[in-house]
Amino acid sequence: MPMKTTSQEPIRLQIIDADDETRALITLLLRAHTGRDYVVERAGRDDRFAGMPATASEAERRVSEALRESEAQLAAVLADRERLERQFYQAQKMETVGQLAGGIAHDFNNILTAIVGFGTLVAEQVSENEAASRNTEEILAAANRASALTRQLLAFGRRQVLHPTRVNLNDTVQALAGMLRQLIGENIDLRIVCSPHLPPIRADLSQLESALANLVINARDAMPRGGRLTIETADVTLDDDYCATHVGVRPGRYARLSVSDNGIGMSQDIQTRIFEPFFTTKEPGKGSGLGLSTVYGIVKQSGGNIWVYSEEALGSTFKVYLPVDPGEQPLAGQIEPARGHWSKGTETVLLVEDAPMIRRLAREIMLRAGYTVIEAGDAEQALLLAKKQGRIDLLLTDLIMPGPSGVELSEQLRASRPGVRVLYMSGYTDNAIVRNGMLGASEAFLQKPFTPEELLRKLRHVIETQAI
Fold first, then answer.
1. Residue 386 near residue 351 (C-beta atoms within 8 A)
2. What residues contact residue 219 under an 8 Å CB cut-off, 6+ apart?
3. How far apart are CA 310 and CA 272, in angstroms?
4. Does residue 187 or residue 114 have the better pLDDT?
5. Using CA atoms, how far apart are residues 112 and 281, in angstroms rounded to an integer?
6. Helices (H), 395-451
7. 285-323 per-position pLDDT tens digit
8. What are the tens digits of pLDDT across the range 320-343?
9. What CATH number does the domain located at 165-323 have?
10. Distance between the two ends of the chain, CA-based, in angstroms?
11. Which phi and psi angles does 459 have, rounded to 5°?
12. Which residues are CB-contacts of 158 (< 8 A; sequence separation ≥ 6)?
């Protein structure tokens, strides 16, 4: 009876263009993994495999190189993803904090308007009483300091009213150069590098000046022993690749404003919080922590972006990107608006304000100055009163109210009374109003909180200069 055998015929393989070393290595590997015998033969050369490694060691080397390259590419992709996630989280956090700060500041502004306004009226009544007058002045001084803080919070929350015009960034920097040199002191070298033929941007000139001054102050404070501060402008175009790595940035042409210092620099942790309101690295009492948050709000509300680049002990650079304006309107200049005589008036004013205490304050101020005042709590009531009223010389209205806004009210009132003048007042305006140009640069506006003098001066200015 024939014996059974477990042996099997060897499996024959042909490998194109394989040398002896490669064939021997493949034979050993296959035997180790399968337990079968293999005969690996060379099948000749195939031009399709030209350039492939001829030996196993060369193949292993190339595979290792490819793996290392793939790992490096994967690490770069993951790093970019992590950075974008951090940017997105930071943008969401700043948006949330901004909404909270802006809402609080708006409500607080109405309270401050009443404190400042009625406090000023009381100060006039007790002017002959030295002690009472002194106490009233302290109240007003404290209220004015609080007003300054609320304006900064409104700027951060992007809820302040802007009057955007076409502005040349180079002209703005050069016009402020003298003041900025005084601001930083003699131990800091200020260098200004302006790009020629810089296209105009669309921004609120006074707010742009405020943002630049705050950036310079921040740079100055980072160089307590002196140093070099550089302000530079440039005409740049941000492409899709740049925008893909910077959250919230749109492709297009921008005017870039850079403020650099060679001061103490910032850690990564500080850089992630530098624009938060009330965050400061200064000693208690040395700073409010609102300077850079104000800059952030102004830039964002103007449709731009701001980025900080910093290394400890090397310095910092803040880069502001503001979209260029393709319009043809004339450029804004540093011209102080004309001031007319404001003390008295006899005109009829339609006052529309939904906050009762602000309405009472404005009515009291205008009545004392000789104006005739018709008051309403909203736009619908104002339009009903206007139908019954004979003469109305000016509409003084809050910008944001329940129901129709102040802008909508003025449009409806002017449809039946083309000659009526309009003065808007508010503690802030929604972002959409500014972005959509609903409140143009030519519109008269009074910022809350206001003093009686500011209200009366603005009334006279509008009455005497606004075209009928």
1. no
2. 184, 229, 259, 260, 261, 263, 316, 318
3. 11
4. 187
5. 29
6. 406-416, 431-435
7. 566 667 888 888 889 888 899 999 999 999 999 999 999
8. 999 999 775 555 544 333 343 445
9. 3.30.565.10
10. 127
11. -60, -50
12. 98, 102, 297, 300, 301, 431
pLDDT classification of 441: cutoffs 50, 70, 90: low
Is 304 in contact with 233 (CB distance < 8 Å)? Answer: no
Q: What would the two tokens of residue 375 be?
A: 């008051």
3-state secondary structure of 193: strand
Closest to 94 in 3D by CA, of 256, 246, 294: 294
Question: Any idea which residue has 């263009």 for tokens?
Answer: 17
The CA distance from 205 to 197, in Å, is: 19
**406 near 381, Cβ under 8 Å?**
no
Identity at 76, one-letter amino acid code: A
Residues in contact with 366: Cβ distance below 8 Å, sequence separation at least 6, in sequence order: 345, 349, 351, 373, 455, 456, 459
Give the right CATH number for 348-465 from 3.50.50.60, 2.60.120.560, 3.40.50.2300, 3.30.70.580. Answer: 3.40.50.2300
What are 114's two structure tokens? 């009443």
Q: What is the spatial distance between Cα 249 and Cα 201, in angstroms, rounded to a whole number?
A: 16
Rounded to the nearest 5°, which phi and psi values hold at 233?
-115, 155
Give the 3-state secondary structure of 144-164.
HHHHHHHHHHHHHCCCCCCCC
CA 204 to chain centre: 13
